Amino acid sequence: EEDDLSFGSLNIGAYKYSSKAVRVSNELLQDAAVNVEDIVSKALAKRIGRAVNKHLTVGTGVNQPKGIVTAASKITTAATGVVADELFKLQHSIDAAYRSDSTWMFNDAFLLKTRTMKNADGTFVWAPGLTAGAPGTILGRPYVINPDMSATFATGEVVALYGNFKAYTVRRAKDVSLVRMTERYADFDQTGFATLARFDGGLMDTSAVKALKLA
User: Fold this and answer.
1) Would the pTM count as exceeding 0.70?
2) How many angstroms separate the first and last alpha carbons of the chain?
3) For residue 193, what pLDDT is reported?
4) Of the residues 94, 129, 144, 197, which has the maximum number of CB atoms within 10 A of its CB?
């Protein structure tokens, strides 16, 4: 027998990110005992990283990447409180083919809530690593803390993601690069620095990742 495959399309472009310019006096660059340019470069790269992470998490898709929270299908639960049964429900909303490689993602506030959460037989849903230094798990699966996930437990908020995050593709069209502006601020005897990058992202398979939304 023969059958056809159905293909969709998802356009992943590249949005430009800038750290904005920072001016440093030339005296400091010349006289400091440490590498000031390297320190500034790392600090500005962190600015880019924070902006990109926010958009890849909760970006609207309008003049910015469509974040994984925005793109993921939503499983709703009461805003009055998340219980263990809701976590089981979220796990089983994922296509079985993806569950063996699935991971939780949430804010640290949600982790605190799950650390005291028990299922119907009184077992904690959070468990410490089996060896020293090993990460903990939620219902047997690893988790990552993302500060750009919501820490607010109120109607409309998405407080957790679960699934195989490899289904979310990140395009890095341009690595984070440092721009050194020696002439622009020459009349102030200063040198300007900025970092630039181009990123986009998209969820390629909506059956691989689901979001828990408070309703």
Assistant:
1) yes
2) 45
3) 97
4) 197
Nearest to 147 by CA among 79, 21, 64, 50: 50
pLDDT digit string (tens) for 1-35?
666 655 566 788 899 999 999 999 999 999 999 99
Amino acid at 181: M
Encode the chain in three state secondary structure.
CCCCCCCCCCCCCCEEEECCCEEEEHHHHHHCCCCHHHHHHHHHHHHHHHHHHHHHHHCECCCCCECHHHHCEEEEECCCCCCHHHHHHHHHCCCHHHHHHCEEEECHHHHHHHHCCECCCCCECEECCCCCCCCCEECCECEEECCCCCCCCCCCCEEEEEECHHHEEEEEEEEEEEEEECCCCHHHCEEEEEEEEEEEEEECCCCCEEEEEEC
The dihedral over CA atoms of 43, 63, 215, 208, expressed in degrees to the nearest 10, equals -80
Residue recorded with tokens 């804010």: 107
> What's the pLDDT tens digit per position in 172-214?
998 999 999 999 999 999 999 999 999 999 999 999 999 999 9
Nearest 10 degrees: CA dihedral of 114, 115, 121, 122? -140
| Spatial contact of 135 and 129, defined as CB atoms under 8 Å apart | yes
Give the type of residue at 122. Answer: G
